[in-house]
Amino acid sequence: MRFLAILRNKTFWVFDFLNGKKVRDAYLVIKKIDGLNSDNPYIHSYQLEQWQKLKKHACSTVDFYHKYEKCDFNEFPVITKNDIRENQGSFFSSLFKKEDLIQMSTSGSTGTPFICYQNSGKKKRVNAEIIYYSEKVGYHLGENLSYIRTIVKQNNKSGLKQFLQNQTLINCGELSDEGIEKIIRSLQDVCQKGSITLLGYASTYTAIKDYARKKDLFSIPKCNITGVISGSEMLFDETRQEISKLFGNVKMVSRYSNEENGVIGQDEGINNVFPINEASYFVEILDEQGHSVQDGNLGRIVVTDLYNYAMPMIRYDTGDIGAVDIFEINGRKKRCICNFSGRKVDVIYDSKGRALSPHIITNGMWSFTDIIQFQIIQKGAKEYKIRLNVPRKFNREDDLIILMKSLLGEDAQISFEKVNEIPVLASGKRRYIINEWKR
User: Of 22, 328, 384, 398, which has the maximum CB count within 10 A?
Assistant: First the structure.
């Protein structure tokens, strides 16, 4: 590490020590639990202890939870963003003042704003999560973390704060060729000062991959990148492979995280299989009636955050769809989020009503290298529209129908719409799979 990076590293840990070692202690617990099999009794006893503390706190200081004091865990209600948004005051702990809390905001995949709050202890916990999971791709505290994201007032940082934290925010609000070129130039400028670890949306990386393919780029010069992290969306294998090569065969991982909670899991060894951060969260998979599903079956991803005491989020429906199962990950048997299907609105069903992972669909698109962008929309039980941004000479619709019918069903009704661009959301993400059918 360069001198400034080492200085930042030492300074950070000194300040943390003087403030009670909150980040260091959280880091060590996260590391310890991540290294254990999920059935290790220590994990169960640790989660139970944290849950009992959280329950006592929530039921005595949070209006919404007062009446659940004598309830078991599975008797607590599943809450959603709308529940919190519509009655935010009832979710605050009376022990905290709003002005002393850290505001976390996200547009969500649908563009609907959502704001929640964290106490300083929870924020330090998230800092420990980011440090630990970023180290798995080669990051060292004090080095530069560069975030490619849509920059708005709520998540922007001053130049001074970015310098002190050695972070760089790179705007990805526009993913045209010109927008991608700006992102690449920004990365090259930052890399002149030293190596960086890169974080961004999966759809932004896909846009960079598509740009490189169109421009016949096999590598992006002057980018000293130690590792790449993708978050918020499904990272497709093709994107992972090509981005890794573009930046010099670096390690690239997918992280399952959100603004309101933190790092819930990060894949390692098996693509898009996320060992759960069991030191900070308890994860359930529930059906639409709120019942637990069997391991491996799809359902709603519901998270209990064990450390947000300012606004406890107990059995919080993330809005995502996925499954949980046991996988062997580098010699450990871990509970992992798998078959991750993204947002509920991004799950489509075949003509027999079975849910399909977007991963299966996009992998099938690999052979269509001349497609610049695509978007698949389910309009009805058996009706699908495919938007295509393709060159004028594209003539493989018949091949595409054969592929789609093999995935969606032989009786699937498929239509095409050619467009000049698949637009991005206000969040900076681009949706490839959309369900407009009110099932």
Answer: 384
